[in-house]
C-alpha cells in the first residue's frame, strides 16, 4: 500500500513494514508506459459500483481485442473476488490468538480467512474490533482522501495482456475493495499470461508510485486524452534519478526524508543544472532566512514618541490577555506546566549551588528558588510574551562572581554595592524602553544569536567542570594508599597538649581505628572508655596522630562517576524519543523528563552508597542561606556615600548584558517559523525585567533574565501538530498553543 510512501507486508505476513521511498526498476516504468499507450483507457467513466465498472470496461473493448465470453466470465469472477487486507494486529487480536479473549468461536479457536483475522459473528467484540482497526488507520488520513486501486496478476486463461486505466467521473465507495471506507476515483488493471509480460508486480508498483506523485495526480485529474497521461509520465521520467546496477543494494529501503520539497518548487522553470550547483536552491534559502529574521515586524517599528513602543505592546497584548488563561485549560498545558516546573527547579538548583560557591552563600539555593518563583510569576502575568521563562544565566553568574571578588578586595559590602548597581540598571532599562531601543533587535543576525547562546552554554560547562575539579582539594585522592600496607595504617586521638608527655595523662590516647586495643592502651576499666570520633577529638582540644588520619574515601572519584553518569543518562534519555522501544507516547514522556529522571537516578545511587559526597547547603527553615544577612538590603550604612554614584559604571555593563541576553532570547522565541498568533512584546518584556531588578536587588535575590534553553523547551512542550499524517510523514507543525 502507498500513503505518501510505500509499505510492504513483512515476511510472515503479520505486519506492515516501515514506510520507505519506493525503488523502481527502470524497465517496469517503460513497460507501464507501453501499457498506457496500448491498453484501454476510460477518463470520466460513470459507474456506481465495482461490478458496474468491470462490466463497462469489459464491454468497451475494441472488436479486434475482445475477449471470448468464457474468458470474460472467468476474468470478471476473478476481479470481483473478495479482497484480503493486511491489518496491523491490535492487542485484542493478539489476546484472541492466544485464546485469552472472552469472545471465542464455537470451536474454541478463531477462524482464519485468508490473511485477515476475523472474530466469530456471534462475538459482540467482532464489530467493535473491525471498527477499531479501520478507524485507527483512518486517523492517519487527512480529510478528503481518496483511494486508488491497482490490480495486477498472472492468469493462465489469458493469451495476451489485459490492461485498463480508469478514472471515474465522481468518487465512489467500492465497499471492501479499500482497506478503509474511502471514495475511489482511479483504478488500474493489468492481467496477462505468464509468458507474455514479465514482472507484473513491478509494473503495478510503478503505477502506484505514479499515483502518489502530486504532479502526476494533477495530470491524471485533468487529463482529457491518452496523450495527456503519457506527457505527465514523461515529466515524471524527467525528474527521475537512475542508479547504476551493482553499485547499491536494491533491497535496501530508503527512509523518508525529514523535509519534502513542495510541488510548487518542482513546477518552477529553473533548469536542472541551476538547482544542483552552488549551495542549494537560492529561493529556498532566501525563504528560510526570511522566516528566521525579524525585518519589517510590527512590534519593532519605531513610533517616534516617548514610550510609544511600550504603549503599542500593551494595546497588542490586551485583547489576548484573557485567552492566555482560557487557552491554558487544554490538557497539553498540564504536562507543559509539570515539565517546565521540573526544568526550572533543576536550573535553580544548579545556578543556586554555583552562586553560593561564588558568593560564600550570600546568595544560595533558597534565594534562587524564591527569586525564580517571584520573578517568574510577575513576568508571566504582566509581560508581553509569557512563553518566556526567566532564569539566571551564565553571563550574570560571571558578573556576580567578579562583583563579589571586587567587593572583598576593596572591603565593600557586597549586597549594598549590588543594590545600587541594580537600581542603576533599572533606570537605564527604563531609558531604553522609553527611547524604543528594542528597535535595534532587528539588526541581530543568526550568527549573533547562536554565538550568544554558545557563550551562555560554555559558561555553565566551564563552571561545572571547575567545581568538579575543585573537589580534589577538599577530598584529595589517596594516591599513596596501598592495600598491602593496611596493617601499618592507624590514627589515634591525643588529648594531651603537644608539649606534654603521653604518660602525664594516662589513658588519654584513644585509638580511633582499633577499638579492640583500647584496654591495652589505658589503665582505666574498659567500661569507662569510649572511642572518640574525629569531631569529638578536635572538640575536646585534642589532635590526631597517625598515618591514616588524613585518609578520606574517594569522594572525588564517586562524584565524577555521578557527574558523568548524570550527563550520559540524560543524553541517552533525551534521544530515547527516536528509539524503537515502547509506544511513541511513552518515548516522548521519557524524553521530556530526561533531565529530572537522570538527576533522580543519580541521587538514588548516591543515597544507596551512603558516601559523604558534598551536598547543597539548604536551610531547614525560611531564612537566608548565610545567617550574616537579612531579607532586606539597606542602601546606606555599610559602604561610603560615593558608592551609589560609582555603581553607575558597572551598571552600564550589566545593562548591556541584560539587554543582549533578554532581547536575543526574545528574537529566537518570536521567529516567524514558530507561527505565534498573539505577537511579541519586546518593550514590555524589557520593562518587566528592569522593574524586577529593583525588587531582586533590594531583597538580595539573584538577577533574572530570559533563559533561552528553558524558554525553547517551554515552546517545544506546547507545539501543535496535525493529528493526521501518513506513515513515514512528519506531522505538520501548526504553531504554539
Describe the 3D structure.
There is one protein chain. This protein has 737 residues and is an alpha+beta fold. Among the domains are: 1-79 and 144-251, 3-Layer(aba) Sandwich (Mannitol-specific EII, Chain A), CATH 3.40.930.10; 332-446 and 634-721 and 732-736, no CATH class; 554-609, no CATH class. Helices cover 47% and strands 9% of the residues. It has a four-stranded mixed beta sheet, with helices on one face. A hairpin with a 2-residue loop joins strand 4 and strand 5. Residues 100-129, 269-296 and 500-530 have low confidence and may be disordered.
User: Which band does the percent of strand residues land in?
Assistant: 5-15%
Radius of gyration: 38 Å
Largest beta sheet: what is the strand line-up? 3-7-8-6
Q: In one word, what is the shape? A: elongated
Average pLDDT rating: 76
Structural class: alpha+beta
| End-to-end separation | 35 Å
How many distinct helices? 27
Number of strands: 15
- The helix content, as a percent range, equals 40-55%
The poorly predicted ranges are 100-129, 269-296, 500-530
For the sheet with most strands, the description reads: 4 strands, mixed
Oligomer status: single chain
What's the structural blueprint in terms of helices and strands?
Layout: E1 2-3, E2 5-6, H1 26-38, E3 40-45, H2 50-59, H3 69-79, H4 91-97, E4 112-113, E5 116-117, H5 125-138, E6 146-154, E7 162-173, E8 183-192, H6 200-211, H7 214-222, H8 226-238, H9 263-266, H10 272-276, H11 282-292, H12 308-317, H13 321-326, H14 331-358, H15 365-382, E9 390-391, H16 394-409, H17 414-434, H18 446-474, E10 492-494, E11 509-511, H19 518-521, H20 534-539, E12 543-545, H21 555-574, H22 584-592, H23 594-609, H24 643-646, H25 648-669, H26 682-699, E13 705-706, H27 708-717, E14 719-721, E15 733-736
Parallel strand pairs: 3-7, 6-8
Antiparallel strand pairs: 1-2, 4-5, 7-8, 9-13, 10-11, 10-12, 14-15
Membrane topology: Multi-pass membrane protein
Organism: Podargus strigoides
Domain Bicarbonate transporter-like transmembrane: 305-737
Amino acid at each position: 500500500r502507498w500513503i505518501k510512501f510505500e509499505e510492504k507486508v513483512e515476511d510472515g505476513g503479520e505486519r506492515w513494514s516501515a514506510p520507505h521511498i519506493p525503488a523502481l526498476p527502470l524497465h517496469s516504468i517503460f513497460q507501464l508506459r507501453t501499457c498506457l499507450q496500448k491498453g484501454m483507457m476510460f477518463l470520466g467513466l460513470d459507474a456506481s459500483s465495482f461490478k458496474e465498472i468491470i462490466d463497462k470496461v469489459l464491454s468497451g473493448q475494441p472488436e479486434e481485442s475482445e475477449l471470448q465470453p468464457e474468458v470474460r466470465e472467468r476474468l470478471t469472477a476473478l476481479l470481483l473476488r473478495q479482497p484480503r487486507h493486511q491489518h496491523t494486529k491490535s492487542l485484542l487480536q493478539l489476546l484472541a490468538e492466544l485464546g485469552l479473549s472472552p469472545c471465542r468461536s464455537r470451536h474454541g479457536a478463531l477462524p482464519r480467512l485468508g490473511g485477515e483475522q476475523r472474530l466469530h459473528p456471534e462475538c459482540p467484540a467482532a464489530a467493535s474490533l473491525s471498527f477499531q482497526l479501520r478507524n485507527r488507520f483512518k486517523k492517519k488520513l487527512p480529510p478528503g482522501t481518496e483511494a486508488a486501486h491497482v490490480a495486477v496478476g498472472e492468469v493462465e486463461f489469458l493469451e495476451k495482456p489485459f490492461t485498463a486505466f480508469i478514472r471515474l467521473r465522481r468518487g465512489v465507495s467500492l465497499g471492501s475493495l479499500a482497506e478503509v471506507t474511502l471514495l475511489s476515483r482511479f483504478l488500474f488493471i493489468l492481467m496477462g499470461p505468464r509468458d507474455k509480460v514479465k514482472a507484473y508486480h513491478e509494473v503495478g508498483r510503478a503505477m502506484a508510485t505514479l499515483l502518489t506523485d502530486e504532479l502526476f495526480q494533477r495530470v491524471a485529474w485533468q487529463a482529457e486524452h491518452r496523450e495527456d497521461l503519457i506527457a505527465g509520465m514523461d515529466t515524471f521520467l524527467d525528474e527521475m534519478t537512475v542508479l547504476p546496477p551493482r553499485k547499491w543494494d536494491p533491497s535496501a529501503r530508503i527512509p523518508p526524508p525529514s523535509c519534502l520539497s513542495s510541488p510548487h518548487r518542482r513546477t518552477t522553470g529553473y533548469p536542472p543544472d541551476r538547482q544542483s550547483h552552488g549551495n542549494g536552491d537560492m529561493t529556498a534559502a532566501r525563504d528560510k532566512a526570511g522566516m528566521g529574521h525579524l525585518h519589517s515586524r510590527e512590534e519593532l517599528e519605531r513610533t517616534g514618541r516617548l514610550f510609544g513602543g511600550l504603549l503599542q505592546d500593551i494595546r497588542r497584548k490586551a485583547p489576548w490577555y484573557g485567552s492566555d488563561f482560557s487557552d491554558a485549560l487544554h490538557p497539553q498545558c498540564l504536562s507543559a506546566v509539570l515539565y517546565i516546573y521540573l526544568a526550572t527547579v533543576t536550573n535553580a538548583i544548579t545556578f543556586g549551588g554555583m552562586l553560593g560557591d561564588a558568593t560564600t552563600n550570600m546568595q544560595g539555593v533558597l534565594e534562587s528558588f524564591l527569586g525564580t518563583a517571584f520573578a517568574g510569576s510577575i513576568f508571566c502575568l504582566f509581560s508581553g510574551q509569557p512563553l518566556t521563562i526567566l532564569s539566571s544565566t551564565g553571563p550574570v553568574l560571571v558578573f556576580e562572581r567578579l562583583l563579589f571578588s571586587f567587593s572583598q578586595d576593596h572591603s565593600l559590602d557586597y549586597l549594598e554595592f549590588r543594590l545600587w548597581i541594580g537600581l542603576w540598571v533599572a533606570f537605564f532599562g527604563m531609558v531604553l524602553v522609553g527611547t524604543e531601543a528594542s528597535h535595534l533587535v532587528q539588526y541581530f543576525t543568526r550568527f549573533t544569536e547562536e554565538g550568544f547562546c554558545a557563550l551562555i552554554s560554555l559558561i555553565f560547562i566551564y563552571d561545572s567542570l571547575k567545581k568538579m575539579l575543585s573537589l580534589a582539594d577538599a577530598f584529595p585522592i589517596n594516591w599513596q594508599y596501598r592495600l598491602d600496607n593496611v596493617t601499618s595504617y592507624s590514627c589515634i586521638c591525643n588529648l594531651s597538649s603537644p608539649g606534654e608527655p603521653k604518660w602525664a595523662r594516662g589513658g588519654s590516647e584513644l585509638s580511633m581505628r582499633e577499638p579492640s586495643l583500647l584496654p591495652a592502651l589505658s589503665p582505666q576499666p574498659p567500661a569507662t572508655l569510649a572511642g572518640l570520633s574525629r569531631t569529638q577529638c578536635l572538640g575536646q582540644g585534642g589532635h590526631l596522630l597517625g598515618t591514616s588520619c588524613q585518609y578520606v574515601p574517594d569522594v572525588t572519584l564517586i562524584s565524577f562517576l555521578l557527574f558523568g553518569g548524570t550527563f550520559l543518562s540524560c543524553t541517552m534519555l533525551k534521544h530515547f524519543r527516536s528509539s524503537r522501544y515502547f509506544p511513541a507516547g511513552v518515548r516522548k514522556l521519557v524524553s521530556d523528563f530526561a533531565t529530572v529522571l537522570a538527576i533522580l537516578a543519580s541521587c538514588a545511587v548516591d543515597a544507596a552508597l551512603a558516601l559523604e559526597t558534598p551536598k547543597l547547603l539548604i536551610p531547614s527553615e525560611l531564612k537566608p542561606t548565610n545567617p550574616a544577612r537579612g531579607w532586606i538590603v539597606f542602601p546606606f550604612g555599610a559602604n561610603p556615600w560615593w558608592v551609589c554614584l560609582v555603581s553607575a559604571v558597572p551598571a552600564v555593563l550589566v545593562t548591556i548584558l541584560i539587554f543582549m541576553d533578554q532581547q536575543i532570547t526574545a528574537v529566537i522565541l518570536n521567529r516567524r517559523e514558530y507561527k505565534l498568533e498573539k505577537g511579541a512584546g519586546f518593550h514590555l518584556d524589557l520593562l518587566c525585567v528592569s522593574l524586577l531588578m529593583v525588587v531582586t536587588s533590594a531583597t538580595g535575590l539573584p538577577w533574572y533574565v530570559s533563559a533561552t534553553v528553558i524558554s525553547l523547551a517551554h515552546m517545544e512542550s506546547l507545539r501543535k501538530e496535525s493529528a493526521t499524517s501518513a506513515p513515514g510523514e512528519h506531522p505538520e507543525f501548526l504553531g504554539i498553543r
